[in-house]
Structures are given as C-alpha cells and as structure tokens.
Amino acid sequence: MKSEYSYRRYTSHDGLHHLLTNTVSQDQSVFLWIGTMKGFARFDGYNFTPFLSETMQSIYRIEDAGDGQVRAYSEGNCFIVDNNDAIREIHLTDSLVINGYSSQVLPTGYLIYESFVHWA
C-alpha cells in the first residue's frame, strides 16, 4: 500500500537566504531557525524572517541562549538576535569555529570552541 504525505518545498522566494541548509534549531518559543550557506532565518510555521548582516557567512550552528536570545555561529563570528529582533555581531577570531558540542550540557553562558589551522 502506497502512502502519500503532504509537504511543501521552501526556497529563497519564501525568505531563505540560500537553498543549502547547514543547520536547523528550535528555540523555546518553538520557532525554527534555519542556517544556510548565506545567512539564517526564523520560521514561525508560515513565514520566514531573514536576518542580515554585512559580513553574513555560512551559518554552521544555531542555539537558543535561554535568555530570549538566539545565537547563530559562522566561521569566526557570532550573530545574536534579541527579543526585539535586533541583531548584533561579535567577531570571535579568524581561527575559531564551533566544534559542535552542545552548550546544553555546559553552565549557562559557556561555549566550547575549537581552534584550527587554515592551510594554504
């Protein structure tokens, strides 16, 4: 017996920055956050809210900070979105990336970074 499931394909016309998705996360308000090759967006189930920055890069990780803020990480940068949808950028360094460890197992406010070498 063949089952049919309904689905919808979202594209950049719907508000995504790019079709290649790197990460998806859910915050405490049950919004979905989608990190792509060219930025990130929040999805409320109906619409995408894109978050832009002049230095926007591929977003590799998104996490709910637990204090009403959401953090999106790219190579060397952290983009913080507050309750008012204001975005601020923190430059970490050129040699730091998030290694993928979940900060949910760490005390509040702590993150794990792993340095790596850029090979020419």
Give an overview in words.
A hairpin with a 2-residue loop joins strand 6 and strand 7. Strands 1-2-3-4 form a four-stranded antiparallel beta sheet, with no helix packed on it. The chain has a four-stranded antiparallel beta sheet with strand order 5-6-7-8, with no helix packed on it. A two-stranded antiparallel sheet has the order 9-10. With 120 residues, it is mostly beta strands. The chain has strands at residues 21-26, 32-36, 39-43, 48-51, 61-64, 70-74, 77-81, 87-91, 96-98, 113-115. The protein contains no helices and ten strands. The chain has one domain. The termini are far apart.
Question: How many domain modules?
Answer: 1
Which structural class best describes the helix and strand composition? mainly beta
Low-confidence segments, given as residue ranges, are 94-102, 115-120
Roughly what is the average pLDDT, rounded to an integer?
79
Report the biggest beta sheet as strand number plus sense, adding barrel if it closes.
Answer: 4 strands, antiparallel
Q: Tally of extended strands?
A: 10
Tell me the radius of gyration: 16 Å
Roughly what fraction of the amino acids lie in strands? Answer: 35-45%
Sketch the topology as an H/E string, one letter per element: EEEEEEEEEE
Tell me the strand order in the biggest sheet: 1-2-3-4
- In whole angstroms, how far apart are the ends? 54 Å
In DSSP terms (H or I, runs of 4 or more residues), the helix count works out at 0
